[in-house]
Amino acid sequence: MRLSHTPTSSEDLKPSLVPPFLAAILSLIIPGLGQILARTIRRGLLLLFSFATIIGLLAWRFTETARRDTGLINIVRKGLSLEPALVVLSILVIVFYIWNVVDAYAIANRSGSNPAGLLFLVIIIFFMLGWQIGQIDVVALITQADDAGPFLSSVLWPWEKSIEYPKDIVTTTAQIQIPCTENPPAPSGALEDAPYLLADPTCGTLAEFEGAPGSTVTLTGHNFIPNTIANIWWEDPIGNEFRQRQGGEYIKITPDERGAFQIDIELPYRLVPANIRDDTTIWEIQIRQVASIGDWQFSTELKLAIEKIIETIFIGMMATFFGILLALPVSFFAARNLMSASPITLGIYFVTRTILNIIRSIEPLIWAIIFVVIVGLGPFAGIMALTVHSIAALGKLYSESIESIDPGPIEAIQATGANWLQVVVYAVIPQIIPPFVSFTIYRWDINIRMSTIIGFVGGGGIGFLLSQWIRLLDYKAAGIAVWFIAITVAILDFVSAEVRQRFV
Amino acid sequence: MLEVRHLTKIYDDGTVALRDVNFIVPDGEFLVIIGLSGSGKSTLLRCINRLIDPTEGEIIWDGVDLAKLEGTELRMARRKIGMVFQHFNLVRRSSVITNVLAGRLGYTSSWQSLFGRFSDEDNAKAQHALERLGIEDQAHKRADELSGGQQQRVGVARALMQEPKMILADEPVASLDPVLAHSILQHLELLNQEDKITILCSLHYLDLVQRYATSVFGLRDGEIVYRGTREEIRGMNDEEFKEIYGQEAERVGGGLQGDLLTANGGGA
Ligand SMILES: Nc1ncnc2c1ncn2[C@@H]1O[C@H](COP(=O)(O)OP(=O)(O)OP(=O)(O)O)[C@@H](O)[C@H]1O
Ligand SMILES: [Mg+2]
Q1: A416 near B106, Cβ under 8 Å?
Q2: Is A267:A215 a contact under the CB 8 Å cutoff?
């Protein structure tokens, strides 16, 4: 008798406290009440609780959708018209409500009612609520997917950004005499393979005032870098530089594919000191073009990424190292079988366990924020964050593997008259080496992975660069960082699998 | 001489495992304790070397009450009491020689043992112990690579390393087959006769009891219900044995003397 009946079925054996009809009425007033009084207390409470939760969440969704409306009717009407999902949800809730009444009747009548359907309905309602609350938008996911195209292609193949050519500004000049005299300066001669600039005429008059045209000079250039924008600059007799403007805009020249161009420019308006204004002076006109000089080299971004990935790996390594070092002694205090000898040691056990659990429940990223506040931005904060978390996580895993060791050898060693330390060295440590090695590798793995993102909150490593580059929309550079992270993690996976195989 | 007076053990959960047990074991005895499962055999043996703390009573050994010892004194006393376990309790991942040397830990400083350094004398003793038990060629294997019988011999060798005056053997042959059971018990008998080591051993099989015991107790529900001498137990038949022992009693099967010589290795 006692063993063959579960509590639920023994509930069914006693008659209901209320007649079926009353049970239905009660469940109509408060969902689940009828079931409770029909002695199916657990089912009743479950119905009551889920109904209350569903109504609460639904009300929140309605007010959220109809933010600006007041009054129950208005909110409901607005909510239903704006969100089709809310219509479906409301219908389901009504079905749920009616079903609950029917169920109360059936239960009180002891005619048997299968709770599976009701349960299924509740699950569907919660699923729909979750869809609503999670703002799941499959349409956006599909229609806007190609927005990620340029971003993705940069990230997938960022390597153009890994090299760069050193750049320099190549300046080619011609001289203009102002104002014109009988013998203006001779134009510079043509050159074989260097860019040169010819001005015609080589003299002119400046504009009288801002906006007025000065005399016109035709500039002809050869041997420039083809198809690359060049700017026109002036240098006045006292050495001030300014850019040529025409119609209020800077003018730019793009040499043709042979590197040649021709352009007419109007001499600018320029306030100059009185002594210069009256003299005949030589002004210099310059064509400036940015040109790559010399061979390719690795880009700054690539160098930075390499530097930071090394930093990342070492953050993970140091954290693992410190973590092991501190978790080892801690784990002995957190192992129940070693600490249950006296109330004092048992107290130490409980305190250690509690502290470890608290530390472990705080995510490494939060620890990183805390340590950034203490020691400032940089890898040290990351190391500290991961160390603290590793101590707690390893301490727990280690102590659990200590707890699961075979007590037989411990007794045997104790029986020889060995002291505590000898028992640990001869009976405990040999048993815990395999699990310790495997947990340590596991932690190392986690630490390196974590160190790649700990930089997002300022904890140093490549994550810092990645977050910067993403914010600057430099997706190519970000792509380089992502690649490095992926490569590191892949290598790490391989190495840890090898180590595990060898030691465990 | 070991004298146990009014020994009582009540576990934390209230189980009374031993109830006012009194007995005397003169030096050089091979005392066998029999009793049903749960009758308190293990509890009794473990109380003697204090792997379990007795609730009440005295365990006087060579004039010292073991029940009252603590710390260093307890460890000094334990050095002279070897223990052999049913499941051998070897450190499975350590080598045989390390397991055997562990028997010397009570005589070794923490510092030296931390680095696994034992004196030359201890190493020679270990070698000798292995030879005596016929497992010298297994010395550098890992303990869990050995067969059950070999492992128990390592267990006996470890106890021997303590140069004990007494060995407690808690069902030392319960997980071995009959041939090996005789082999191990013969080793214990040899230690008992040649080295004059007192043996307290719990056993399940009547023929083993009859063959090795120099005196016998029966335990039931934590109380001694039978005491017999060598002669009395030899003359006992199965029915009488079952009466004190309970229905589980069985013979291991006799006539194994011939096989024993091969199973015994070179030890004897
Ligand atoms: N740690 C413990 N806590 C509580 N009760 C225990 C404990 N160890 C043993 N007991 C109980 O004490 C009684 C005696 O146990 P003990 O192990 O001494 O019996 P045993 O004669 O060695 O049995 P077996 O032949 O099965 O080994 C049993 O009832 C057992 O359940
Ligand atoms: Mg036992």
Answers
A1: yes
A2: yes
Task: Establish if A434 touches chain B: CB-CB under 8 angstroms.
Answer: yes
The DSSP call for residue A75 is H
Cα dihedral B244/B249/B252/B253 (nearest 10): 90
- Closest protein CA for atom 26 of ligand 1: B37
Q: Residue A4's pLDDT is what?
A: 38
Report which protein residue has its CA nearest ligand 1's atom 2: B11
Query: How far apart (Å, rounded) are the C-alpha atoms in residues A424 and A48?
Result: 55
Q: For B172-222, how does the pLDDT look when each residue is reduced to its tens digit (9 = 90+)?
A: 888 888 888 888 888 889 888 888 889 999 987 878 888 888 888 888 888
Here the tokens at position A150 are 């340029």
* pLDDT tens digits, B116-175: 788 888 888 888 888 888 888 888 888 888 888 888 889 989 998 999 999 999 988 888
pLDDT of residue B248: 56
How far apart CA A324 and CA A394 sit, in angstroms, is 7
pLDDT, position B256 = 40
Question: Cα–Cα distance between A467 and A304 in angstroms, integer?
Answer: 14
Q: What distances in angstroms separate CA B173 from CA B155, B183, B203, one per listed residue?
A: 11, 9, 8
If you measure from the C-alpha of residue B197 to the centroid of ligand 2, how many angstroms do you get, rounded to a whole number? Answer: 22
Question: Does position B72 have pLDDT exceeding 60, yes or no?
Answer: yes
Q: Evaluate whether B225 touches B57 at the Cβ level (below 8 Å).
A: no
Tell me the C-alpha to C-alpha distance, in Å, between residue A376 and each of A195, A233, A311, A382, A457: 52, 46, 16, 10, 11
Interface probe for B, chosen from A416, A437, A504 (most Cβ of B below 10 Å), is A416
Ligand 1 binding pocket includes B9 (Cβ within 6 Å): no
Alpha helices, DSSP H only, in A206-299?
A: 274-278
Q: Which residue of A has its CA nearest to B113?
A: A422
Residue of B8, B9, B11 to test ligand 1 pocket, by largest number of atoms within 8 Å of CB: B11
- CA nearest B90: which of B161, B185, B155, B139? B155
Name which of B79, B105, B144 to mutate to probe chain A: the one with the most chain A Cβ atoms within 10 A of its Cβ: B105
Domain ranges of chain A: 9-136, 167-292, 300-503
Q: Which residues surround the ion ligand 2 when the cut-off is CB under 5 Å?
A: B 42
Q: Taking Cα atoms as reference points, which of A270, A394, A382 lies closest to residue A332?
A: A394
pTM score, whole prediction: 0.66
- Residue B218 beta carbon below 6 angstroms from any ligand 1 atom: no
Instruction: Name the nearest CA neighbour of A489 among A446, A457, A455, A459.
Output: A446
Per the structure block, which two tokens stand in for A138? 């499959």
- The Cα B26–Cα A499 span in angstroms is 57
pLDDT digits (tens, 9 = 90+) for A233-260: 998 888 888 888 887 788 888 898 888 9
In which band, very low, low, confident or very high, does the pLDDT at B251 lie, cut at 50, 70 and 90? low
**What percent of chain B is predicted at pLDDT more than 90?**
11
**CATH, range A300-503:** 1.10.3720.10
Better-predicted residue by pLDDT, A503 or A267? A267
How far apart CA B145 and CA B154 sit, in angstroms, is 12
Minimal-distance CA residue of chain B relative to A431:
B93
CA–CA min distance A500, chain B (Å): 17
- Give the nearest partner residue to B105 out of A406, A422, A433, using CB atoms: A422
- C-beta atoms of A415 and B91 within 8 A: no
Task: Pick the atom of ligand 1 nearest to B13's CA.
Answer: 4
CATH code assigned to A167-292: 2.60.40
Distance B17 CA to ligand 1 centre (A): 6
